[in-house]
Predict the structure.
Amino acid sequence: MSLVTDFIVIGSGVAGLRASIALAESGADVTVLTKDKASESNTEYAQGGVAVVLSEDDDAELHEGDTLVAGAGLCDEPAVETLVTEGTKYIKQLIDWGTEFDREGGKLVFTQEAAHSRRRILHAHGDSTGAEFVRSLIARARQERTINLLPFANTESLIVEDGRCVGVRFLDPILRSPREVYGKAVIMCTGGAGQLYQHTTNPPVATGDGMAMAYFAGAEMADMEFIQFHPTALSVEGAPRFLLSEAMRGEGGILRNVQGERFMSRYDQRQELAPRDIVSRSIVAEMRRTGSRHVFLDMTALDAEFLRERFPKIDATCKQFGLDIAKDMLPVSPASHYCMGGIRTDLHGRSTVPGLYAAGEVSCTGVHGANRLASNSLLEGLVFGARAGEAAVADSLKFGVSDFRLSEAPSGQNSQPISTAVKKRVKRVMWERVGILRDRGSLLRAISEFEQIERSNLGTSSRNFVTLALLVARAALWREEARGGHFRSDFPEQREEFRVHSIQKQGSDISSSPQMDF
Ligand code: FAD
Ligand code: SIN
Protein backbone atom coordinates (compact mmCIF):
# COMPACT_ATOMS: atom_id res chain seq x y z
CA MET A 1 0.00 0.00 0.00
CA SER A 2 1.39 3.41 -0.97
CA LEU A 3 2.10 6.14 1.53
CA VAL A 4 1.21 9.80 1.05
CA THR A 5 2.98 12.71 2.74
CA ASP A 6 3.54 16.38 1.96
CA PHE A 7 7.29 16.21 1.30
CA ILE A 8 9.82 13.42 0.96
CA VAL A 9 13.43 13.87 1.97
CA ILE A 10 15.92 11.13 1.08
CA GLY A 11 18.94 11.03 3.41
CA SER A 12 19.63 12.16 6.95
CA GLY A 13 23.03 13.86 6.74
CA VAL A 14 23.43 17.61 7.28
CA ALA A 15 21.56 18.51 4.07
CA GLY A 16 18.64 16.14 4.64
CA LEU A 17 18.18 17.08 8.28
CA ARG A 18 18.39 20.81 7.58
CA ALA A 19 15.97 20.53 4.64
CA SER A 20 13.53 18.50 6.77
CA ILE A 21 13.56 21.16 9.49
CA ALA A 22 12.88 23.91 6.92
CA LEU A 23 9.98 21.89 5.46
CA ALA A 24 8.51 21.09 8.87
CA GLU A 25 8.70 24.73 9.95
CA SER A 26 6.03 25.41 7.30
CA GLY A 27 3.73 22.98 9.13
CA ALA A 28 4.03 20.31 6.44
CA ASP A 29 4.34 16.56 6.99
CA VAL A 30 7.80 15.37 6.08
CA THR A 31 8.82 11.76 5.49
CA VAL A 32 12.56 11.21 5.72
CA LEU A 33 13.78 7.95 4.19
CA THR A 34 17.30 6.97 5.09
CA LYS A 35 19.32 3.94 4.15
CA ASP A 36 20.83 2.97 7.47
CA LYS A 37 20.44 4.22 11.04
CA ALA A 38 19.70 7.95 11.09
CA SER A 39 23.24 8.99 12.03
CA GLU A 40 25.05 6.94 9.37
CA SER A 41 26.29 9.41 6.75
CA ASN A 42 29.39 11.20 5.55
CA THR A 43 28.33 14.01 7.85
CA GLU A 44 28.77 11.79 10.90
CA TYR A 45 32.45 11.23 10.06
CA ALA A 46 33.40 14.83 9.25
CA GLN A 47 36.47 15.68 11.25
CA GLY A 48 38.25 18.94 10.46
CA GLY A 49 35.32 21.29 10.90
CA VAL A 50 33.16 23.86 9.21
CA ALA A 51 34.47 26.94 7.42
CA VAL A 52 32.59 30.08 8.42
CA VAL A 53 33.20 33.80 8.57
CA LEU A 54 32.92 34.58 12.27
CA SER A 55 36.36 35.66 13.47
CA GLU A 56 37.32 39.30 13.76
CA ASP A 57 40.08 39.21 11.13
CA ASP A 58 37.90 37.51 8.51
CA ASP A 59 35.26 38.61 6.02
CA ALA A 60 32.96 37.09 3.41
CA GLU A 61 35.05 38.41 0.52
CA LEU A 62 38.13 36.59 1.77
CA HIS A 63 36.21 33.32 2.19
CA GLU A 64 34.67 33.79 -1.25
CA GLY A 65 38.10 34.49 -2.77
CA ASP A 66 39.65 31.35 -1.24
CA THR A 67 36.72 29.22 -2.46
CA LEU A 68 37.05 30.62 -6.00
CA VAL A 69 40.82 29.99 -6.11
CA ALA A 70 40.39 26.38 -4.92
CA GLY A 71 37.60 25.88 -7.51
CA ALA A 72 40.12 26.46 -10.35
CA GLY A 73 38.02 28.84 -12.43
CA LEU A 74 34.85 26.75 -12.39
CA CYS A 75 32.92 28.02 -9.35
CA ASP A 76 29.68 29.87 -9.96
CA GLU A 77 30.19 33.14 -8.14
CA PRO A 78 26.52 33.68 -7.11
CA ALA A 79 26.56 30.23 -5.47
CA VAL A 80 29.78 30.95 -3.60
CA GLU A 81 28.49 34.34 -2.49
CA THR A 82 25.31 32.70 -1.18
CA LEU A 83 27.34 30.10 0.70
CA VAL A 84 29.73 32.45 2.46
CA THR A 85 27.23 35.20 3.27
CA GLU A 86 24.32 33.02 4.41
CA GLY A 87 26.68 30.51 6.04
CA THR A 88 27.34 32.77 9.00
CA LYS A 89 23.61 33.10 9.73
CA TYR A 90 23.05 29.33 9.60
CA ILE A 91 26.04 28.54 11.84
CA LYS A 92 24.83 31.08 14.42
CA GLN A 93 21.44 29.39 14.26
CA LEU A 94 23.06 25.99 14.76
CA ILE A 95 24.83 27.31 17.85
CA ASP A 96 21.45 28.60 19.11
CA TRP A 97 20.09 25.09 18.57
CA GLY A 98 22.73 23.68 20.90
CA THR A 99 25.67 22.73 18.68
CA GLU A 100 28.80 22.84 20.82
CA PHE A 101 31.83 24.05 18.93
CA ASP A 102 35.18 24.02 20.75
CA ARG A 103 35.93 27.15 22.75
CA GLU A 104 38.77 28.56 24.84
CA GLY A 105 37.87 30.92 27.66
CA GLY A 106 34.31 30.96 26.29
CA LYS A 107 35.45 32.14 22.83
CA LEU A 108 35.13 30.04 19.69
CA VAL A 109 38.46 28.67 18.46
CA PHE A 110 39.28 28.60 14.76
CA THR A 111 41.74 26.29 13.09
CA GLN A 112 43.65 26.54 9.81
CA GLU A 113 43.18 24.27 6.81
CA ALA A 114 44.81 24.17 3.39
CA ALA A 115 44.05 27.00 0.95
CA HIS A 116 42.23 29.12 3.57
CA SER A 117 43.81 32.56 3.99
CA ARG A 118 42.43 32.82 7.54
CA ARG A 119 41.93 30.56 10.54
CA ARG A 120 38.18 30.15 9.95
CA ILE A 121 37.41 26.50 10.71
CA LEU A 122 35.18 25.82 13.71
CA HIS A 123 35.42 22.32 15.15
CA ALA A 124 33.71 20.23 17.80
CA HIS A 125 35.12 17.72 20.29
CA GLY A 126 38.47 18.26 18.57
CA ASP A 127 38.03 16.11 15.48
CA SER A 128 34.37 15.02 15.67
CA THR A 129 32.66 18.02 14.15
CA GLY A 130 30.32 15.99 11.94
CA ALA A 131 29.04 13.84 14.80
CA GLU A 132 28.18 17.01 16.72
CA PHE A 133 26.29 18.35 13.67
CA VAL A 134 24.30 15.12 13.46
CA ARG A 135 23.60 15.05 17.20
CA SER A 136 22.30 18.59 17.33
CA LEU A 137 20.35 18.46 14.05
CA ILE A 138 18.62 15.20 14.98
CA ALA A 139 17.72 16.70 18.37
CA ARG A 140 16.32 19.79 16.60
CA ALA A 141 14.42 17.65 14.05
CA ARG A 142 12.86 15.63 16.89
CA GLN A 143 11.23 18.83 18.14
CA GLU A 144 9.27 18.98 14.88
CA ARG A 145 6.34 16.63 15.34
CA THR A 146 5.59 16.47 11.62
CA ILE A 147 8.93 14.86 10.74
CA ASN A 148 8.66 11.11 10.37
CA LEU A 149 12.10 9.56 10.00
CA LEU A 150 12.25 6.03 8.55
CA PRO A 151 15.66 4.41 9.04
CA PHE A 152 16.87 1.41 6.99
CA ALA A 153 14.61 2.52 4.11
CA ASN A 154 16.77 2.10 1.03
CA THR A 155 15.43 4.17 -1.87
CA GLU A 156 16.07 2.87 -5.37
CA SER A 157 14.12 5.00 -7.83
CA LEU A 158 11.99 8.08 -8.31
CA ILE A 159 8.42 8.16 -9.59
CA VAL A 160 7.88 10.67 -12.39
CA GLU A 161 4.41 11.38 -13.74
CA ASP A 162 3.82 13.78 -16.64
CA GLY A 163 7.36 15.10 -16.27
CA ARG A 164 7.03 15.83 -12.56
CA CYS A 165 8.71 13.94 -9.72
CA VAL A 166 5.90 12.88 -7.40
CA GLY A 167 7.38 10.16 -5.25
CA VAL A 168 9.92 7.46 -4.62
CA ARG A 169 10.15 3.68 -4.43
CA PHE A 170 11.91 2.31 -1.42
CA LEU A 171 12.44 -0.99 0.25
CA ASP A 172 10.13 -1.08 3.24
CA PRO A 173 12.32 -2.31 6.11
CA ILE A 174 9.36 -3.84 7.97
CA LEU A 175 7.40 -5.34 5.08
CA ARG A 176 10.72 -6.22 3.36
CA SER A 177 9.21 -5.37 0.00
CA PRO A 178 9.28 -2.40 -2.41
CA ARG A 179 6.83 0.36 -1.56
CA GLU A 180 5.91 3.80 -2.92
CA VAL A 181 5.60 7.08 -1.10
CA TYR A 182 4.08 10.13 -2.80
CA GLY A 183 4.47 13.81 -1.99
CA LYS A 184 4.40 17.31 -3.44
CA ALA A 185 8.18 17.26 -3.87
CA VAL A 186 11.22 15.07 -3.27
CA ILE A 187 14.39 16.57 -1.78
CA MET A 188 17.35 14.38 -2.67
CA CYS A 189 20.03 14.52 0.03
CA THR A 190 21.76 11.17 -0.42
CA GLY A 191 25.31 12.51 -0.28
CA GLY A 192 28.34 11.53 -2.31
CA ALA A 193 29.79 8.50 -4.05
CA GLY A 194 33.21 7.89 -2.49
CA GLN A 195 32.39 4.18 -2.51
CA LEU A 196 32.82 4.14 -6.30
CA TYR A 197 36.54 3.79 -5.56
CA GLN A 198 38.56 0.97 -4.06
CA HIS A 199 40.17 3.35 -1.57
CA THR A 200 37.87 5.86 0.10
CA THR A 201 37.40 7.81 3.30
CA ASN A 202 33.61 7.46 2.90
CA PRO A 203 31.39 5.03 4.86
CA PRO A 204 29.57 2.18 3.02
CA VAL A 205 26.33 4.22 2.56
CA ALA A 206 28.10 6.63 0.18
CA THR A 207 27.33 4.80 -3.07
CA GLY A 208 25.89 7.81 -4.89
CA ASP A 209 22.42 6.28 -5.29
CA GLY A 210 20.64 9.63 -5.45
CA MET A 211 22.71 10.79 -8.40
CA ALA A 212 21.80 7.69 -10.42
CA MET A 213 18.13 7.89 -9.40
CA ALA A 214 17.95 11.52 -10.53
CA TYR A 215 19.69 10.69 -13.82
CA PHE A 216 17.16 7.94 -14.57
CA ALA A 217 14.36 10.36 -13.69
CA GLY A 218 15.62 12.69 -16.44
CA ALA A 219 17.60 15.20 -14.38
CA GLU A 220 20.72 16.87 -15.72
CA MET A 221 23.96 15.88 -14.03
CA ALA A 222 26.83 18.34 -13.88
CA ASP A 223 30.62 18.14 -13.45
CA MET A 224 30.66 14.42 -12.67
CA GLU A 225 34.36 14.17 -13.58
CA PHE A 226 35.44 16.19 -10.57
CA ILE A 227 36.26 13.84 -7.71
CA GLN A 228 38.28 15.07 -4.76
CA PHE A 229 40.93 12.70 -3.43
CA HIS A 230 41.94 13.44 0.15
CA PRO A 231 45.72 13.30 0.46
CA THR A 232 45.98 11.74 3.90
CA ALA A 233 43.98 8.59 4.55
CA LEU A 234 45.62 6.12 6.92
CA SER A 235 47.41 3.49 4.86
CA VAL A 236 47.81 0.36 6.94
CA GLU A 237 47.45 -3.09 5.35
CA GLY A 238 43.99 -4.51 6.14
CA ALA A 239 42.71 -1.37 7.91
CA PRO A 240 39.91 0.92 6.59
CA ARG A 241 41.13 4.14 5.00
CA PHE A 242 40.48 6.22 8.08
CA LEU A 243 40.88 9.95 7.46
CA LEU A 244 43.76 11.84 9.08
CA SER A 245 42.26 15.30 8.99
CA GLU A 246 43.72 18.13 6.98
CA ALA A 247 43.58 20.07 10.24
CA MET A 248 46.60 18.00 11.32
CA ARG A 249 48.61 19.69 8.59
CA GLY A 250 46.88 22.95 9.48
CA GLU A 251 48.27 22.60 13.01
CA GLY A 252 51.80 21.98 11.69
CA GLY A 253 51.93 18.36 10.44
CA ILE A 254 54.57 17.64 7.81
CA LEU A 255 54.61 15.18 4.91
CA ARG A 256 57.74 13.05 4.46
CA ASN A 257 58.54 10.37 1.92
CA VAL A 258 59.64 6.88 2.97
CA GLN A 259 63.23 8.14 2.98
CA GLY A 260 62.28 10.68 5.64
CA GLU A 261 62.55 13.74 3.34
CA ARG A 262 60.03 16.59 3.52
CA PHE A 263 59.06 16.73 -0.15
CA MET A 264 56.14 19.14 -0.74
CA SER A 265 58.41 22.11 -1.61
CA ARG A 266 59.38 20.19 -4.78
CA TYR A 267 55.77 20.54 -5.95
CA ASP A 268 54.22 23.71 -4.49
CA GLN A 269 55.49 26.64 -2.45
CA ARG A 270 52.47 26.36 -0.14
CA GLN A 271 53.86 22.94 0.75
CA GLU A 272 51.55 20.87 3.03
CA LEU A 273 48.87 23.59 2.82
CA ALA A 274 48.53 23.58 -0.96
CA PRO A 275 45.04 22.64 -2.28
CA ARG A 276 44.12 18.98 -1.88
CA ASP A 277 44.39 18.00 -5.54
CA ILE A 278 47.96 19.28 -5.65
CA VAL A 279 48.95 17.53 -2.40
CA SER A 280 47.33 14.27 -3.56
CA ARG A 281 49.13 14.29 -6.91
CA SER A 282 52.41 15.23 -5.22
CA ILE A 283 52.05 12.25 -2.89
CA VAL A 284 51.36 9.95 -5.86
CA ALA A 285 54.44 11.31 -7.64
CA GLU A 286 56.54 10.82 -4.51
CA MET A 287 55.21 7.28 -3.98
CA ARG A 288 56.12 6.45 -7.59
CA ARG A 289 59.56 8.08 -7.28
CA THR A 290 60.38 6.08 -4.17
CA GLY A 291 58.57 2.89 -5.19
CA SER A 292 56.41 2.94 -2.08
CA ARG A 293 52.69 2.51 -1.28
CA HIS A 294 52.53 5.46 1.11
CA VAL A 295 54.23 8.56 2.48
CA PHE A 296 54.25 9.67 6.12
CA LEU A 297 52.40 12.34 8.05
CA ASP A 298 54.80 13.51 10.74
CA MET A 299 53.25 15.18 13.80
CA THR A 300 56.19 14.49 16.12
CA ALA A 301 57.31 18.13 16.39
CA LEU A 302 54.01 19.02 18.09
CA ASP A 303 53.26 18.80 21.78
CA ALA A 304 51.85 15.35 22.63
CA GLU A 305 49.26 16.64 25.10
CA PHE A 306 48.01 19.22 22.59
CA LEU A 307 47.72 16.55 19.88
CA ARG A 308 45.73 14.13 22.04
CA GLU A 309 43.34 16.86 23.12
CA ARG A 310 42.99 18.36 19.64
CA PHE A 311 42.57 15.04 17.76
CA PRO A 312 41.11 12.57 20.28
CA LYS A 313 39.31 10.38 17.75
CA ILE A 314 42.27 10.17 15.40
CA ASP A 315 44.52 9.43 18.38
CA ALA A 316 42.26 6.58 19.55
CA THR A 317 41.88 5.11 16.04
CA CYS A 318 45.61 5.21 15.29
CA LYS A 319 46.27 3.48 18.63
CA GLN A 320 44.11 0.56 17.45
CA PHE A 321 46.65 0.09 14.66
CA GLY A 322 49.64 0.39 16.98
CA LEU A 323 50.42 4.00 16.01
CA ASP A 324 51.05 6.88 18.43
CA ILE A 325 50.21 10.16 16.66
CA ALA A 326 52.71 12.08 18.78
CA LYS A 327 55.63 9.66 18.35
CA ASP A 328 55.19 7.64 15.16
CA MET A 329 55.39 8.45 11.50
CA LEU A 330 51.82 7.89 10.26
CA PRO A 331 51.60 6.05 6.90
CA VAL A 332 49.16 7.86 4.57
CA SER A 333 48.11 7.85 0.94
CA PRO A 334 45.26 9.50 -1.02
CA ALA A 335 41.72 8.12 -1.12
CA SER A 336 38.52 9.26 -2.83
CA HIS A 337 36.73 11.69 -0.56
CA TYR A 338 34.22 14.04 -2.15
CA CYS A 339 32.17 14.52 -5.36
CA MET A 340 32.15 18.08 -6.64
CA GLY A 341 29.62 17.19 -9.32
CA GLY A 342 26.10 15.89 -8.99
CA ILE A 343 22.50 16.79 -9.74
CA ARG A 344 22.44 20.17 -11.46
CA THR A 345 20.54 22.65 -9.31
CA ASP A 346 19.80 26.33 -9.19
CA LEU A 347 20.50 28.36 -6.04
CA HIS A 348 17.30 27.03 -4.45
CA GLY A 349 18.03 23.35 -4.92
CA ARG A 350 15.68 22.96 -7.90
CA SER A 351 16.83 20.27 -10.31
CA THR A 352 15.88 20.31 -13.97
CA VAL A 353 12.97 17.94 -13.19
CA PRO A 354 9.98 19.74 -11.64
CA GLY A 355 9.25 18.44 -8.14
CA LEU A 356 12.80 17.15 -7.64
CA TYR A 357 15.18 19.17 -5.44
CA ALA A 358 18.70 18.32 -4.32
CA ALA A 359 21.04 19.61 -1.64
CA GLY A 360 24.42 18.74 -0.17
CA GLU A 361 27.01 16.49 -1.76
CA VAL A 362 24.54 14.84 -4.15
CA SER A 363 23.92 18.21 -5.81
CA CYS A 364 25.97 20.51 -8.00
CA THR A 365 25.25 24.19 -7.41
CA GLY A 366 28.62 25.24 -8.83
CA VAL A 367 29.75 26.25 -5.36
CA HIS A 368 32.86 24.04 -5.41
CA GLY A 369 33.86 24.40 -9.06
CA ALA A 370 36.55 21.88 -9.98
CA ASN A 371 37.81 21.44 -6.42
CA ARG A 372 36.11 21.95 -3.06
CA LEU A 373 37.80 24.13 -0.47
CA ALA A 374 38.27 22.12 2.74
CA SER A 375 35.42 22.34 5.26
CA ASN A 376 33.03 24.08 2.87
CA SER A 377 30.66 21.12 2.57
CA LEU A 378 29.12 21.00 6.02
CA LEU A 379 28.34 24.67 5.43
CA GLU A 380 26.94 23.87 1.99
CA GLY A 381 24.62 21.22 3.45
CA LEU A 382 23.21 23.69 5.95
CA VAL A 383 22.76 26.63 3.60
CA PHE A 384 21.45 24.78 0.56
CA GLY A 385 19.51 22.22 2.61
CA ALA A 386 17.53 25.06 4.18
CA ARG A 387 17.12 26.85 0.84
CA ALA A 388 15.91 23.69 -0.94
CA GLY A 389 13.34 23.03 1.80
CA GLU A 390 12.07 26.60 1.66
CA ALA A 391 11.87 26.58 -2.15
CA ALA A 392 10.00 23.26 -2.20
CA VAL A 393 7.38 24.69 0.15
CA ALA A 394 7.01 27.91 -1.83
CA ASP A 395 6.89 26.17 -5.24
CA SER A 396 4.33 23.60 -4.18
CA LEU A 397 1.73 25.98 -2.80
CA LYS A 398 -0.32 25.42 -5.94
CA PHE A 399 0.22 21.67 -6.05
CA GLY A 400 -1.96 19.37 -3.92
CA VAL A 401 -1.01 15.80 -3.01
CA SER A 402 -4.31 14.60 -4.48
CA ASP A 403 -3.29 15.98 -7.88
CA PHE A 404 -1.37 12.85 -8.80
CA ARG A 405 -2.45 9.32 -9.39
CA LEU A 406 -1.42 6.78 -6.79
CA SER A 407 0.01 3.82 -8.57
CA GLU A 408 -0.81 0.55 -6.87
CA ALA A 409 0.89 -1.44 -9.58
CA PRO A 410 3.83 -3.48 -8.35
CA SER A 411 7.04 -1.65 -9.14
CA GLY A 412 8.56 -4.64 -10.91
CA GLN A 413 11.84 -3.68 -9.39
CA ASN A 414 14.53 -6.12 -8.52
CA SER A 415 15.26 -4.86 -4.99
CA GLN A 416 18.60 -6.17 -3.93
CA PRO A 417 21.68 -4.46 -2.49
CA ILE A 418 24.49 -3.74 -4.94
CA SER A 419 25.98 -7.10 -5.94
CA THR A 420 29.32 -7.69 -4.22
CA ALA A 421 30.95 -8.82 -7.45
CA VAL A 422 29.75 -5.73 -9.38
CA LYS A 423 30.83 -3.42 -6.57
CA LYS A 424 34.29 -4.94 -6.32
CA ARG A 425 34.89 -4.80 -10.06
CA VAL A 426 33.62 -1.24 -10.50
CA LYS A 427 35.66 0.01 -7.53
CA ARG A 428 38.87 -1.54 -8.84
CA VAL A 429 38.39 -0.18 -12.36
CA MET A 430 37.48 3.29 -11.04
CA TRP A 431 40.61 3.36 -8.87
CA GLU A 432 42.96 2.13 -11.57
CA ARG A 433 41.52 3.91 -14.62
CA VAL A 434 39.36 6.83 -13.49
CA GLY A 435 41.46 7.83 -10.49
CA ILE A 436 43.80 10.64 -9.48
CA LEU A 437 45.50 10.48 -12.90
CA ARG A 438 43.46 9.55 -15.98
CA ASP A 439 44.04 9.52 -19.73
CA ARG A 440 42.07 8.73 -22.85
CA GLY A 441 43.25 5.12 -23.00
CA SER A 442 42.46 4.33 -19.36
CA LEU A 443 39.06 6.00 -19.61
CA LEU A 444 38.07 4.20 -22.80
CA ARG A 445 38.99 0.86 -21.21
CA ALA A 446 36.99 1.73 -18.08
CA ILE A 447 33.93 2.76 -20.11
CA SER A 448 34.03 -0.42 -22.16
CA GLU A 449 34.23 -2.52 -18.99
CA PHE A 450 31.34 -0.64 -17.36
CA GLU A 451 29.22 -0.97 -20.52
CA GLN A 452 29.86 -4.69 -20.46
CA ILE A 453 28.70 -4.90 -16.81
CA GLU A 454 25.70 -2.73 -17.66
CA ARG A 455 24.57 -5.24 -20.29
CA SER A 456 24.36 -8.06 -17.72
CA ASN A 457 21.19 -8.78 -15.75
CA LEU A 458 21.46 -6.28 -12.88
CA GLY A 459 19.22 -5.38 -9.94
CA THR A 460 18.24 -1.71 -9.59
CA SER A 461 20.93 -0.84 -7.04
CA SER A 462 23.71 -2.47 -9.07
CA ARG A 463 22.48 -0.75 -12.23
CA ASN A 464 22.49 2.59 -10.38
CA PHE A 465 26.08 2.00 -9.22
CA VAL A 466 27.52 1.08 -12.60
CA THR A 467 25.63 3.92 -14.29
CA LEU A 468 27.23 6.35 -11.89
CA ALA A 469 30.67 4.99 -12.72
CA LEU A 470 29.86 5.53 -16.40
CA LEU A 471 28.77 9.12 -15.75
CA VAL A 472 32.10 9.90 -14.05
CA ALA A 473 34.19 8.12 -16.68
CA ARG A 474 32.37 9.64 -19.68
CA ALA A 475 32.65 13.17 -18.29
CA ALA A 476 36.34 12.57 -17.54
CA LEU A 477 36.85 11.46 -21.14
CA TRP A 478 35.04 14.52 -22.45
CA ARG A 479 37.12 17.01 -20.42
CA GLU A 480 40.44 17.12 -22.25
CA GLU A 481 42.35 19.22 -19.75
CA ALA A 482 43.61 19.20 -16.17
CA ARG A 483 41.60 21.32 -13.75
CA GLY A 484 41.09 20.95 -10.00
CA GLY A 485 40.21 17.39 -9.04
CA HIS A 486 40.35 16.19 -12.67
CA PHE A 487 43.84 15.50 -14.00
CA ARG A 488 44.30 14.15 -17.52
CA SER A 489 47.92 12.99 -17.92
CA ASP A 490 47.46 13.33 -21.70
CA PHE A 491 46.17 16.93 -21.34
CA PRO A 492 48.12 18.18 -18.29
CA GLU A 493 47.23 21.88 -18.76
CA GLN A 494 44.13 23.94 -18.04
CA ARG A 495 42.38 24.93 -21.30
CA GLU A 496 40.22 28.04 -21.55
CA GLU A 497 37.66 26.35 -23.85
CA PHE A 498 36.89 23.93 -21.00
CA ARG A 499 36.04 26.65 -18.52
CA VAL A 500 32.48 25.31 -18.61
CA HIS A 501 30.45 22.74 -16.71
CA SER A 502 29.90 19.31 -18.23
CA ILE A 503 26.22 18.37 -18.44
CA GLN A 504 24.91 14.83 -18.87
CA LYS A 505 21.31 13.84 -19.47
CA GLN A 506 19.90 10.43 -20.28
CA GLY A 507 19.51 9.99 -24.02
CA SER A 508 21.70 12.98 -24.97
CA ASP A 509 25.38 13.52 -25.72
CA ILE A 510 27.47 15.40 -23.17
CA SER A 511 26.96 19.14 -23.48
CA SER A 512 28.38 22.10 -21.60
CA SER A 513 27.13 25.19 -19.82
CA PRO A 514 28.97 28.31 -18.66
CA GLN A 515 26.91 28.42 -15.47
CA MET A 516 25.01 26.00 -13.27
CA ASP A 517 21.79 28.01 -12.95
CA PHE A 518 19.29 27.25 -15.72
P1 FAD B 1 25.62 12.65 3.85
O1 FAD B 1 26.03 13.23 5.14
O2 FAD B 1 26.54 11.65 3.24
O3 FAD B 1 24.20 11.99 4.05
C1 FAD B 1 23.63 11.20 3.03
C2 FAD B 1 22.44 10.46 3.61
O4 FAD B 1 21.74 9.80 2.58
C3 FAD B 1 22.82 9.38 4.61
O5 FAD B 1 21.91 9.44 5.66
C4 FAD B 1 22.66 8.09 3.81
O6 FAD B 1 22.39 6.96 4.61
C5 FAD B 1 21.47 8.46 2.96
N1 FAD B 1 21.33 7.67 1.74
C6 FAD B 1 22.25 7.41 0.79
N2 FAD B 1 21.72 6.65 -0.17
C7 FAD B 1 20.43 6.42 0.16
C8 FAD B 1 19.36 5.70 -0.43
N3 FAD B 1 19.49 5.03 -1.56
N4 FAD B 1 18.17 5.68 0.21
C9 FAD B 1 17.98 6.33 1.40
N5 FAD B 1 18.97 7.01 2.00
C10 FAD B 1 20.17 7.08 1.39
N6 FAD B 1 33.23 18.30 5.13
C11 FAD B 1 33.44 19.44 5.83
O7 FAD B 1 32.88 20.48 5.51
N7 FAD B 1 34.26 19.42 6.92
C12 FAD B 1 34.91 18.30 7.34
O8 FAD B 1 35.62 18.31 8.34
C13 FAD B 1 34.71 17.10 6.62
N8 FAD B 1 35.33 15.96 6.98
C14 FAD B 1 35.01 14.80 6.34
C15 FAD B 1 35.57 13.60 6.79
C16 FAD B 1 35.20 12.40 6.19
C17 FAD B 1 35.79 11.12 6.70
C18 FAD B 1 34.29 12.40 5.11
C19 FAD B 1 33.88 11.12 4.46
C20 FAD B 1 33.77 13.59 4.64
C21 FAD B 1 34.13 14.79 5.24
N9 FAD B 1 33.59 16.01 4.80
C22 FAD B 1 33.83 17.15 5.51
C23 FAD B 1 32.61 16.04 3.72
C24 FAD B 1 31.21 16.14 4.34
O9 FAD B 1 31.15 15.31 5.48
C25 FAD B 1 30.13 15.73 3.38
O10 FAD B 1 30.31 16.30 2.12
C26 FAD B 1 28.77 16.18 3.89
O11 FAD B 1 28.61 15.76 5.22
C27 FAD B 1 27.67 15.62 3.02
O12 FAD B 1 26.44 15.84 3.64
P2 FAD B 1 25.12 15.35 2.92
O13 FAD B 1 24.02 15.63 3.85
O14 FAD B 1 25.07 15.88 1.56
O15 FAD B 1 25.34 13.76 2.76
C1 SIN C 1 39.41 16.91 6.90
O1 SIN C 1 39.20 16.99 8.10
O2 SIN C 1 40.52 16.85 6.39
C2 SIN C 1 38.25 16.85 5.99
C3 SIN C 1 37.78 18.20 5.74
C4 SIN C 1 36.92 18.26 4.51
O3 SIN C 1 36.82 17.29 3.77
O4 SIN C 1 36.35 19.33 4.29
In short: DSSP finds 14 helices and 23 strands in the chain. The longest helix spans residues 77-96.
